[in-house]
Design goal:
- By secondary structure, this protein is of the alpha+beta class.
- It folds into three domains: about 230 residues, Alkaline Phosphatase, subunit A; about 70 residues, Immunoglobulin-like; about 140 residues, Jelly Rolls (Sandwich).
- About 20% of the residues lie in helices and about 30% in strands.
- The chain has eleven helices and 27 strands.
- An eight-stranded mixed beta sheet has the order 4-3-5-1-6-7-2-8, with helices on both faces. Strands 17, 18, 19, 21, 22, 24 and 27 form a seven-stranded antiparallel beta sheet that branches. Strands 10, 12, 13, 14, 15 and 16 form a six-stranded mixed beta sheet that branches.
- The N and C termini lie far apart (about 90 Å).
């Protein structure tokens, strides 16, 4: 072929395509969003249906939500494809009409327009359905754009997750709308009640997995799956009993895509933001989002598969703290055919480390680090600090629990009178203090002495939700006071060998409860106090 002929054919091809990359399309999109269903959570829980969708679809376990990891701002983002700075919803309960940041675009309800409104404008023929447990999102979303909204109003009886998802599946198969949006709150409720590392939370995710499995099977049996892309995601994750901070457990959410043109077995390696997911929904349906949205189409989910495969992170039990007398440490992973390797010194495990053969005892404090290995791929690393139950009378951290402390700063503990409860526990932790999982308005004073073996400069790390303050020998080393979500601060102290007094103050205002203290000689890894390092 002559050069001139080849050039003409190339120019013709460019002219026909307009030099524009084709965006994958789907006749139908199912967009399922679960409140507080973290990326780390669905890896630890038993989720066979999610795993099947991942094996035959695409997955990202490193998509990030906006910070702070609160519900309202992120629910607005996953409906608008726009970050907080554009939507004007910066925190829970904040209306952009009364806030400090004016939305970059305004819908008729005073909020930033959702992708549902954009689809309605550009695809007036498209049918848009919305199902959920309640109508709580109606304050942020323009509900008039939905052809079907269940429940329709906030005064209508709320549905259970089972009712909402089953009704949504029946409506999708019968009516075949172009977009089905499903919003489920239950994982957030269970995380706040039982903790995001609890069996109660994992059981909830397992049940959500069952409901999604039922939905997917109905779509497959109806013959619609080749024309449908199902997208599973969340607004944020969680840690301990709450969220709102910036830990990876709080900000990383899963994105699972299944069906239609999605690449089978694709593990997405790039890190996306949660506003990219609704942009992908809009792109699949064939609409152009406003400039102010910022979300981009996640094309990686439709690109050829690489050699990377999905391996969920192992679950270490107990999750942290004391291994009760007579019990052992157990490791598990939610996938068949994976091996688990672990270390007990906090070092990174690999195939050269100890292979997990069954539950094992520990007789001294250790950091259990574990990975799952399958088809030449490693999972993320699970790392848990554990110590054996102490003999009677050996616990050295004295605590005093005070209830009905209603303030937004730490109290003057000398004025609180008699504590509601007091005793000795093994570590500077909330785990063994007797308060309710969802209790608010209390304060705790911890005291002990640390036995420093080697003189030097020591670094301390104090994480809390809400406020806390650390004193060493009467001197404030870290001030992390105030009513806030999970927040971490650092401090330093020059310590001589010998005994030093430790005083740790903490208070809980509302919602999440969290307290963790790490330390170490400067230049060495930080870790929790070993119980043997503490003296009454």
């Amino acid at each position: 072929m002559k050069r001139s002929t080849a050039l003409i054919l190339l120019l013709a091809a460019i002219s026909m395509t307009g030099c524009k990359e084709q965006t994958p399309a789907a006749k139908h999109v199912v967009y399922m969003c679960f409140d507080a269903m973290s990326a780390i959570g669905i890896q630890r829980a038993e989720t066979p249906n999610f795993n099947r969708m991942i094996e035959s679809g695409a997955v990202s376990m490193h998509t990030r939500c906006g910070i702070p990891s609160n519900s309202s701002p992120n629910w607005e983002t996953i409906a608008t494809a726009a970050p907080f700075e554009m939507t004007g919803v910066l925190d829970n309960g904040v209306s952009p009409r009364n806030g400090t940041v004016i939305p970059a675009l305004l819908s008729e309800n005073g909020f930033f327009p959702t992708i549902f409104e954009t689809i309605r404008e550009q695809r007036p023929d498209a049918r848009i359905y919305k199902f959920g447990e309640s109508c709580w999102v109606s304050g942020m979303y323009n509900m008039s754009v939905f052809d079907v909204a269940v429940p329709e109003r906030s005064d209508v009886k709320h549905l259970t997750p089972d009712e909402a998802i089953h009704q949504a599946a029946d409506a999708f198969v019968a009516d075949r709308p172009e977009l089905m949006f499903i919003a489920i709150d239950m994982p957030d409720h269970e995380g706040h009640t039982w903790g995001h590392e609890s069996q109660g939370y994992f059981d909830c995710l397992h049940h959500m997995d069952e409901l999604v499995g039922d939905f997917v099977r109905k779509v497959e049996e109806s013959g619609l799956i080749d024309d449908t892309v199902i997208i599973i995601t969340a607004d944020h994750g969680g840690i301990n009993y709450g969220h709102g901070g910036s830990t990876m457990a709080e900000i990383e959410v899963p994105v699972i895509m299944y069906g239609g043109p999605v690449t089978r077995g694709k593990v997405m390696e790039h890190i996306n933001m949660n506003y990219d997911t609704p942009a992908t929904v809009a792109g699949l349906i064939g609409v152009q989002l406003p400039w102010e949205c910022h979300g981009k189409f996640i094309k990686e989910a439709f690109e050829p598969k690489t050699g990377v495969c999905y391996v969920p992170v192992p679950l270490v039990h107990p999750f942290r703290g004391i291994v009760p007398e007579g019990e052992k440490v157990s490791l598990s992973v939610d996938t068949e055919g994976a091996e688990i390797f672990y270390t007990l010194d906090g070092s990174q495990p690999s195939c050269e480390s100890t292979r997990y053969e069954g539950p094992f005892p520990i007789d001294q404090p250790c950091t259990v680090s574990a990975v799952a290995y399958k088809n030449g791929n490693y999972s993320m690393t699970a790392s848990n600090f554990l110590y054996a139950a102490l003999p009677e009378g050996k616990a050295a951290v004295h605590y005093k629990l005070y209830r009905n402390v209603r303030d937004v700063v730490l109290p003057d503990f000398s004025r609180l009178g008699k504590p509601a409860a007091e005793g000795y526990i093994a570590a500077f932790s909330l785990e063994d203090v007797p308060f309710a999982a969802n209790e608010d308005d209390f304060a705790i004073l911890f005291t002990s002495r640390m036995d420093v073996k080697e003189s030097g400069r020591y670094k301390f790390e104090l994480s809390s939700d809400d406020g806390s303050r650390l004193y060493i020998d009467g001197k404030c080393v870290i001030d992390n006071d105030g009513s806030h979500t999970l927040q971490t601060k650092f401090g330093f102290a020059e310590l001589q060998s010998g005994l030093h007094d430790i005083r740790l103050e903490y208070f809980e205002d509302c919602e999440g409860q969290y307290l963790y203290l790490n330390y170490g000689q400067e230049g060495k890894p930080l870790r929790p106090f070993f119980p043997e390092e503490l003296v009454k």
